Amino acid sequence: LGMGKYHIPTRTIVPVAGVLQPDSSVFYNAVYAIMRDSKNKIWVGSHYYGLGWYHPGQNRVQVYDSEPSNALSYNGGAIGTIFEDRQQNLWIGTLTNGIYLFKPYQKAVIFHPADYQNNKGYNNGPIRKITAIGKDRLYLGADGGFSIYHKPTKTYQNFRGVRGFLTNGPPEGINFTEPDYAGNIWLGSNRLGLCRYNPLTGSFTRYGSWDSAQQRKVGNVQFYRALALPDSSFFFICYNRLVKLHTPSLTFYNHFVSGHPVYKLVGLSGFCADTGHTIYISQTEGRLYRFNYKTN
Predict the structure, then answer these.
(1) Which of the chain's ends, N or C, has fewer CB atoms near its CB within 10 Å?
(2) Cβ atoms of residues 37 and 88 within 8 Å
């Protein structure tokens, strides 16, 4: 139902004007990506209106108009993720129409289609997360599997998603590709659990609904969101619940093993962290929670 702005000092939520103001009459008026670039411009990716940017002074969102006759314009439709690389380019992953390499301050766009067989494009399906470690590689999660884009050669290295848990390949239906502080990439699937990719060895390690090596319950098999913390831990949203993972010890905390109220919340949809030790957790019913992960 659109976009709102949370004012931390007063703990109030202010609606944002423009096309993404709350409006139940617009079907799929959902916002999937909000990103502030290196020039402090706030980019917004939505389902119905595509790419836009936020004007703080006017408290409104303006849509980036597509130009079907212009090959160097953005015409991607619904957006799943927005990522800025070190060269200040925007990589826009869409849910229906590939990837757009967008140079906003040069007003130029390069389209990357799906082409997993020839390594000229990424694995097929919606793109829900793009991230990077270093300047030369991008890591992409799509419905068809996991892809690495090599900038110097402008080629993709694709790993087709594998169904089932009895394999160490990447899963299908990837919702996020999140780096940790040891240089690994964590992949979360919407139906096949959690996977860790080691860029140095090129190996994948899968974690299903039951970690038999440790006899610990990991959680349900749908991993939806990931948030890396400075203490080498992750928070995940797993089947709409909160799960915490301490990566060095591979210790999981969730509603199966912890009685803390935060792990008993249900219907969770997203989260973010501030510069301190607070994460803000959103719930599909319209609630917002503040949780200090240092003091619990």
Answers:
(1) C
(2) yes
pLDDT at 246: 84
Decide if 274 contacts 280 (C-beta within 8 A). Answer: yes
The Cα–Cα gap between 61 and 154 comes to 33
Which of these, 246, 238, 235, 248, lies nearest to 279 by C-alpha position? 235
Helices (H) and strands (E) in the chain, counts: 0, 28
Residues 184-211 pLDDT 10s: 999 998 878 888 999 999 999 887 654 4
Buried b (16+ CB within 10 A) or exposed e, 26-57: beebbbbbeeebeeebebbbbbbbbbbebeee
pTM: 0.86
Q: Which of 32, 144, 20, 124 is nearest to 80 (CA)?
A: 32
β-bridge pairing 90-94 and 42-46 = unpaired
For Cα atoms 78, 81, 86, give the angle at the middle one, nearest 5 degrees. 135
Lowest-pLDDT choice from 12-26, 27-41, 120-134, 144-158: 12-26
What are the structure tokens assigned to 80, written together? 């799943």
For the chain, the residue count is 296
- pLDDT tier at 218 (50, 70, 90 boundaries)? low
For residue 103, give the nearest of 114, 92, 89 by alpha carbon.
89
How far the first Cα of the chain sits from its last, in Å, is 31
Residue corresponding to tokens 């913390």: 229
Between strands 17-18 and 60-63, the pairing is parallel
